[in-house]
């Protein structure tokens, strides 16, 4: 915009309208491309969180004049609309929805408002729903003293094929999330990750691992960096990966 026009409110408004129209045109083009993605995939899981996290992180770094929180919220809605075209992806909620709407806001801040949400009476029920559908995600409380559902994801567990794949919220000042997204599929690196490891022999954990939860003689620990499922031997099992919080990566 020409600086000489900066104090002409009518011109400023016309420039805003021009930018808004351009944005809507580009969004429509992006959604059209999502249809081509669906055709190219020809089946398989539509949700690929590692690629999404890496892309949002790159965008947040490149967009210095916009806050990472804003970038994250915008892309949550764009990805939600795209996934609704490709999938759709169903989000099974294993968290009690509060009257203040904080939990719903948490989920929409990560998955947008275009995807179907189904509320379940327990974390186990949400996980079971996701276990039966490759295009579904369960959102449950992050592993901790009051959340022991993760034992079902361990070797010999009832839902060992499920993996922890994303954190909620994506933009956060805390290293450990409030909730996590669990789905079928292979974990993949996003470029800045925390691996989640389970063992019945805590002494076998790497020295820099942090124990996050314990149940039934097993411990769940986090380890900075991406660790492939077969990298740690028989005593340690990788049950997921959490992309580092966006605020940490951007030093905010």
Which key features would you list for this structure?
252 residues; single chain; 5-stranded mixed beta sheet; 6 helices; alpha+beta
The major beta sheet can be summarized as:
5 strands, mixed
Helical stretch count?
Answer: 6
| Total of domains | 1
Structure summary, number of beta strands: 9
Label the overall shape.
Answer: globular
**Rg value:** 20 Å
- Taken in chain order, the helices and strands follow as HHHEHEHEEEEEEEH
Estimate percent helicity.
25-40%
A few lines on this structure:
The protein is α+β, with helices and mostly antiparallel strands.
Describe this structure in words.
This protein has 252 residues and is an alpha+beta fold. It has one domain (43-247). The protein has 6 helices and 9 strands; from the N terminus they run H-H-H-E-H-E-H-E-E-E-E-E-E-E-H. Strands 2-1-3-5-4 form a 5-stranded mixed beta sheet. Strands 7-8-6-9 form a 4-stranded antiparallel beta sheet, with no helix packed on it. Helix 1 packs across helix 3 and helix 3 (68-86) packs across helix 4. It is globular, with a radius of gyration of 20 Å. The two termini are 30 Å apart. The mean pLDDT is 87.
Layout of strands and helices, then pairs:
Layout: H1 9-41, H2 49-62, H3 68-86, E1 90-93, H4 102-111, E2 117-119, H5 123-131, E3 136-141, E4 162-168, E5 179-184, E6 193-199, E7 210-215, E8 218-224, E9 237-243, H6 246-249
Parallel strand pairs: 1-2, 1-3
Antiparallel strand pairs: 3-5, 4-5, 6-8, 6-9, 7-8
Helix pairs in contact: 1-3, 2-3, 3-4
């Amino acid at each position: 915009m020409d600086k000489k026009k900066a104090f002409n409110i009518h011109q400023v408004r016309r420039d805003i309208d021009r930018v808004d129209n351009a944005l809507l045109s580009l969004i429509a083009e992006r959604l059209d491309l999502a249809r081509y993605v669906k055709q190219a995939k020809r089946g398989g899981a539509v949700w690929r969180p590692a690629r999404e996290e890496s892309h949002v992180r790159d965008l947040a770094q490149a967009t210095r004049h916009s806050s990472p929180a804003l970038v994250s919220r915008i892309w949550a809605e764009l990805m939600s609309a795209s996934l609704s075209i490709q999938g759709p992806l169903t989000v099974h909620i294993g968290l009690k929805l509060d009257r203040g709407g904080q939990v719903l806001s948490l989920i929409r801040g990560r998955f947008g408002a275009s995807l179907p949400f189904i509320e379940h009476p327990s974390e186990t029920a949400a996980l079971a729903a996701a276990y039966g559908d490759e295009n579904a995600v369960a959102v449950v409380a992050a592993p901790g003293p009051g959340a022991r559902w993760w034992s079902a994801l361990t070797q010999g567990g009832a839902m060992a094929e499920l993996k922890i794949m994303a954190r909620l919220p994506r933009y956060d000042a805390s290293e450990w999330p409030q909730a996590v997204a669990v789905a079928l599929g292979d974990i993949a690196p996003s470029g800045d990750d925390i691996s989640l490891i389970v063992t019945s022999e805590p002494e076998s954990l790497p020295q820099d691992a942090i124990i996050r939860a314990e149940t039934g003689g097993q411990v769940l620990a986090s380890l900075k960096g991406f660790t492939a499922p077969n990298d740690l031997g028989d005593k340690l099992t990788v049950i997921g990966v959490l992309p580092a919080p966006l605020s940490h990566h951007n030093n905010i």
